[in-house]
């Protein structure tokens, strides 16, 4: 994951982590319930992990960057950290009660690769499990922040259809400011 210096500094800052703990994580997982085992795809520097640990019985993460994954292992010893691409997870089918992602999908270079992340989330969810995530929307300020980064924002006009095509049901999308929250369920049958 190529991120410019300003972006790296923001994502590992105490200010960003506080925002995630106080605002982002509660908004994304509100109503998901106290699921036993959650997987976060693409935690980066780990700004959401403490908040997930407070809400869920067991937290696992899949981080593509081996340096960031090693840092997460050191800072969060109770969390299972796997170095893996969210589009090709080494976890067994039906392993998690919930899968989350927080402002990482815009770093996935193509819509097809984002769809692979959705397919993998579905595969590792138990029947009735919930995908809960959020991402930034396209804006001039986001484009400036991402100069030198991969920036492939989600198309909100097709996101629901893409999640349904991946196999999810009960898709719920909510826009708030410059973000979109997604919620979708793996069907109980199948």
Automatic annotation (TrEMBL):
InterPro entries xref list: Methyltransf_11, SAM-dependent_MTases_sf
Q: Does the keyword Transmembrane apply?
A: no
Q: Tell me the superkingdom of the source.
A: Bacteria
Metal-binding as a keyword? no
Q: Where is the Methyltransferase type domain?
A: 39-132
Sorted keywords for this record are: Ubiquinone
* Membrane-spanning parts: none
Record PANTHER family = METHYLTRANSFERASE
Give the protein name, as stated in the record. Answer: Ubiquinone/menaquinone biosynthesis C-methylase UbiE
Instruction: Give the classification, highest ranks.
Output: Bacteria, Bacillati, Actinomycetota, Actinomycetes, Mycobacteriales
């Amino acid at each position: 994951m190529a991120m410019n210096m300003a972006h790296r500094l923001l994502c590992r800052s105490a200010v960003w982590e506080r925002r995630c703990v106080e605002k982002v994580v509660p908004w994304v997982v509100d109503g998901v319930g106290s699921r036993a085992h959650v997987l976060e795809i693409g935690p980066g520097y780990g700004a959401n992990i403490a908040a997930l640990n407070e809400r869920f019985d067991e937290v696992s993460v899949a981080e593509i960057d081996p340096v960031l994954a090693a840092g997460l292992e050191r800072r969060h010893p109770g969390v299972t950290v796997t170095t893996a691409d969210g589009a090709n997870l080494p976890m067994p089918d039906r392993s998690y009660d919930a899968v989350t992602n927080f402002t990482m999908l815009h770093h996935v270079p193509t819509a097809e690769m984002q769809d692979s992340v959705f397919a993998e989330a579905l595969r590792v969810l138990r029947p009735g499990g919930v995908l809960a995530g959020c991402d930034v929307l396209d804006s001039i300020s986001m484009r400036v922040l991402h100069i030198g980064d991969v920036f492939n924002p989600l198309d909100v006009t097709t996101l629901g259809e893409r999640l349904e095509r991946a196999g999810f049901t009960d898709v719920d999308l909510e826009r708030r400011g410059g973000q979109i929250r997604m919620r979708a369920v793996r069907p109980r049958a199948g």
